[in-house]
């Protein structure tokens, strides 16, 4: 069952920004600990993202425990977790026509936070290629591999919704 959320244009734009943070925060390698969220991830952002998070949890069947484990550096290989990550990309409007991560939204958001822009740009460019290489056309695997790489490359900008 596919759960879709219809949002007005303003909310969708705001959610796209949250999606950027979600992508930046979704993945962390087991050597990276991201128990606390970055300062730019506000309580309001988390509250606004809640409906998307709930929809993606429902769609994929990922457990809250698996999501929380990733926040603490423990990466499950569960398919549901991988597809949850891709679902977030889709729901936040971060997937382009090729069904790949769109860099424009991420980079636009981080232009507002100049201290992170160069770090994010480097991580995104590195991880997009790695994610595509290892995914072999599997969107869930692509999201998971990208995010795991991203968390290693830019742990300061990482947080899993």
TrEMBL record:
Keywords: Secreted. GO terms for molecular function: odorant binding. GO terms for biological process: sensory perception of smell. GO terms for cellular component: extracellular region. Gene3D superfamilies: Pheromone/general odorant binding protein domain. It is found in: Secreted. Its main location: secreted. Pfam families: PBP_GOBP. PANTHER family: GENERAL ODORANT-BINDING PROTEIN 19A. Belongs to the PBP/GOBP family. This is Pheromone-binding protein-related protein 6-like isoform X1. It comes from Cephus cinctus.
């Amino acid at each position: 069952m596919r759960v879709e959320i219809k949002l007005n244009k303003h909310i969708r734009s705001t959610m796209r920004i949250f999606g950027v943070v979600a992508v930046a925060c979704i993945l962390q390698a087991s050597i990276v600990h991201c128990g606390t969220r970055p300062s730019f991830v506000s309580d309001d952002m988390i509250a606004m993202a809640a409906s998307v998070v709930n929809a993606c949890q429902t769609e994929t069947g990922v457990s809250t425990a698996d999501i929380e484990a990733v926040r603490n550096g423990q990466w499950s290989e569960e398919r549901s977790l991988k597809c949850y990550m891709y679902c977030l990309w889709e729901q936040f409007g971060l997937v382009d026509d090729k069904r790949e991560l769109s860099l424009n939204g991420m980079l636009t958001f981080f232009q507002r936070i100049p201290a992170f822009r160069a770090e994010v740009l480097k991580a995104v460019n590195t991880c997009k290629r790695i994610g595509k290489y290892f995914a072999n056309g599997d969107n869930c695997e692509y999201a998971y591999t990208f995010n795991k790489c991203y968390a290693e490359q830019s742990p300061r900008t990482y947080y899993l919704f």
